[in-house]
């Protein structure tokens, strides 16, 4: 346990001191480094640390990923301009209502064809890898490189999609779980759509709006302290997450709507400061989960999948998202050129959201093959999207300059 804490502390310190250099020179980011530090110090390599001291490894990963997602979703919600979802309703509707279902069906079809899974299991694996991960995406849309080369319209669109579809991935995964277990679809609809989505939205908006209003009143009377105010984003995320889950609703969606409501009701200067604070907090959460995942990565199960696993990884990363955005890009208002669809079509990583849903699916269904395939896709996405992020970002910036000329 002491070595595990030491490893996480070293990773946070090392990445915090060198993240700019890592991106600029080596074209790698913090999560990539954290994963390989976890591999090196975990049971597979040096054997210095073993997270299983915390309990069942899958349960540990699920809980750590759950909290990390909540922090990342709150960060994304606070990063969006005020009323972004309302002002760009058509873009958000296309990304969530058209592209997301296409990604699910494509991932499911590939799982069916390449791995030969039963239909219900293929739908489950497709649902697990559908969400665009906000954790890895945050490393692609923030920082000097992204802000220099990628326009705000595309960075905001990816942020809105990755934070929202992670939340909406929950009812999708639970639908597939119901199909695998041959459970009642009516019960699924009432629990995970009507109450899961609707209840989470109401809970999140209520908590975010109420927190923002109370903060405004307290600030007007100068009854708040700066240090306390700067932690409100994380506090609100934990409150919304726990309240919604205790009520049997979708905790991640409640976090997203709470962040949007809080962003809308608070003053602009405070919202911007809270966004920066939440970004720092999220980075603190992101790296430990990748360290733990590196220590617990199921290498043996990936090997057992053999070439079919490799084929599925390649097929999913190339076909799950890119064709959908290339086909629908003309109807997405924030896209002004074909290159926009290519950029966002590639930058749709599979990450901690898939890890959380894979753990959730394994706990509910016991299907190890779905777990192994999903985590192998996550591993490949982490590596490929990390090493291509900076070169693709620079290529896109050059393409924009050439269009201006």
Characterize the structure shown.
This protein has a single domain, classed as Na+/H+ antiporter like fold (Up-down Bundle). It contains 19 helices and no strands. The chain has helices at residues 2-26, 30-41, 57-79, 84-87, 89-115, 119-128, 134-141, 144-149, 152-180, 185-220, 226-229, 232-246, 251-265, 268-296, 299-319, 322-328, 338-346, 352-365, 368-404. The longest helix is centred in the C-terminal third of the chain and has 37 residues, at 368-404. It is globular. The mean pLDDT is 87.
Helix and strand layout, with pairings?
Layout: H1 2-26, H2 30-41, H3 57-79, H4 84-87, H5 89-115, H6 119-128, H7 134-141, H8 144-149, H9 152-180, H10 185-220, H11 226-229, H12 232-246, H13 251-265, H14 268-296, H15 299-319, H16 322-328, H17 338-346, H18 352-365, H19 368-404
Helix pairs in contact: 1-2, 1-14, 2-14, 3-9, 3-12, 3-13, 3-14, 3-18, 5-6, 5-9, 5-15, 6-9, 6-18, 6-19, 7-9, 9-10, 9-13, 9-18, 10-12, 10-13, 12-13, 15-19, 16-17, 17-19, 18-19
């Amino acid at each position: 346990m002491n070595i595990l804490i030491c490893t996480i502390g070293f990773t946070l310190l090392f990445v915090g001191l060198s993240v700019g250099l890592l991106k600029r020179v080596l074209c790698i980011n913090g999560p990539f480094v954290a994963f390989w530090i976890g591999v090196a110090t975990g049971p597979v390599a040096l054997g210095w640390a073993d997270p299983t001291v915390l309990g069942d490894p899958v349960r540990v990963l699920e809980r750590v990923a759950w909290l990390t997602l909540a922090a990342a979703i709150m960060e994304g919600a606070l990063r969006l301009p005020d009323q972004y979802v309302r002002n760009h309703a058509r873009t958000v509707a296309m990304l969530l209502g058209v592209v997301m279902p296409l990604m699910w069906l494509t991932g499911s079809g590939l799982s069916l064809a390449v791995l030969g899974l039963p239909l219900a299991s293929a739908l489950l694996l497709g649902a697990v890898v559908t969400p665009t991960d906000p954790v890895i995406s945050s490393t692609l849309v923030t920082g000097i490189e992204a802000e220099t080369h990628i326009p705000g319209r595309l960075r905001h669109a990816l942020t809105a999609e990755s934070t929202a579809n992670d939340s909406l991935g929950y009812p999708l995964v639970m639908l597939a779980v119901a199909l695998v277990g041959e459970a009642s679809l009516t019960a699924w609809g009432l629990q995970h759509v009507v109450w899961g989505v609707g209840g989470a939205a109401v809970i999140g908006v209520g908590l975010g709006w109420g927190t923002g209003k109370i903060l405004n009143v307290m600030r007007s009377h100068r009854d708040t302290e700066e240090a306390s105010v700067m932690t409100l984003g994380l506090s609100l995320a934990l409150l919304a997450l726990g309240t919604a889950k205790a009520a049997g609703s979708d905790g991640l969606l409640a976090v997203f709507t709470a962040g949007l409501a809080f962003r809308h009701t608070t003053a602009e200067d405070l919202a911007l400061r809270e966004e920066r604070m939440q970004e720092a907090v999220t980075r603190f959460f992101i790296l430990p989960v990748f360290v733990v995942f590196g220590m617990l990565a199921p290498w043996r199960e990936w090997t057992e999948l053999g070439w079919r696993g490799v084929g599925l990884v390649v097929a999913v990363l190339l076909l799950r998202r890119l064709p959908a955005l290339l086909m629908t890009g003309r109807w997405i208002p924030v896209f002004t050129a074909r290159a926009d669809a290519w950029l966002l079509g590639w930058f749709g990583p599979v990450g901690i959201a898939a890890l959380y849903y894979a753990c959730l699916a394994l706990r509910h269904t016991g299907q190890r093959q779905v777990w192994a395939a999903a985590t192998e896709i996550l591993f490949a996405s982490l590596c490929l999207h990390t090493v291509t992020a900076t070169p693709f970002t620079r290529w896109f910036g050059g393409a924009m300059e050439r269009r201006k000329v």
